[in-house]
Amino acid sequence: MARLIAYSRICPAGLQWRGPAGTHRATWAELGAGPPDAFGLPPLRAKYFFDEPFPKFGRMDPLCKVAVAAAQLIQRAGGFEGRNRDEIAQSGGTALGCLEVDAQFEATRRAGAPSPALFVYTLPSMFQGEVAIQFKLRGRCALFCDGERSGITALATAAHWVDHGRAPAVLAIACDAAGPAAQAAGFGPPQTAAMAWLLAANGKGPEVTGPALRQSAATPHRGDLRHGLTFMDTLEAWLTPATAP
Questions:
Q1: Spatial distance between the Cα atoms of 82 and 69, rounded to a whole number of angstroms
Q2: Whether 207 contacts 1, CB under 8 Å
Q3: Rounded to whole angstroms, how far apart are CA atoms 228 and 185?
Q4: Going edge to edge, which strands form the sheet with 22-26?
Q5: Could you read off the pLDDT of 11-50 as tens digits, one per residue?
Q6: Omega of the bond prior to 189 within 30 degrees of 0, cis?
Q7: Looking at domain 3-239, which of 3.40.50.300, 3.30.499.10, 3.30.1130.10, 3.40.47.10 is its CATH number?
């Protein structure tokens, strides 16, 4: 049976992470980040998440930044501690994918100078590659672009893999990066946010099953988050009860 070992959330209200190392919250004001912009978050900086310098973070596209930051909060929560990272799988969900960087790259192409720095991020699964590199995760990996149910699909898949012995632990990340391209395409109002969960077959935490997640999502409340994270915040109280470690 899959258990929720650690959890993290990055949203307009700030950061939250929970796991064996305890529960923590921080507002953007407490981090000195300033207020969220029109798309939900202030500009993300490595210092809000990492104790050591991380120059590559500044070169990432917004989707990779928010996903890698969510994974870092899982690490801060103690989720990876004592686990074989060769066996930790990834399940990702995103509705908008790399839409913003696609638009930026297309603008450089039309101008006659395609940007190699942007091109490398014109894959919706690139955030999973960056997470794998940064945290040395070598397990199986899958990405789901399933509209507003992308996050539910990713989390349910992670639970299914653990329940059926396909992976001893799975890092599930639901994330979206919004901007002018999303707004122009009619995804409104655009919002950037991410949530991450580490599920495992062993450890302390509430039980999480794929069928239960799908049932909870059958008639969901929409909550405050949008795009591929729609419905995910409505499951937060169930996934992280007060009795959880």
A1: 21
A2: yes
A3: 15
A4: 22-26, 14-19, 3-11, 193-200, 169-176, 88-93, 141-144
A5: 999 999 999 999 999 999 999 998 899 999 999 999 999 9
A6: yes
A7: 3.40.47.10
* Res 139 pLDDT > 50: yes
Which of 20-24, 96-100, 208-212 is predicted with the least confidence, judged by mean pLDDT?
A: 208-212
DSSP-derived 3-state class of residue 52 = coil
The answer to whether the predicted template modeling score (pTM) of the entire model surpasses 0.85 is: yes
Residue with tokens 């539910």: 152
Helix, strand or coil for residue 240? coil
Q: Per-domain residue ranges for the chain?
A: 3-239
Stretch 142-171: mean pLDDT, rounded?
95
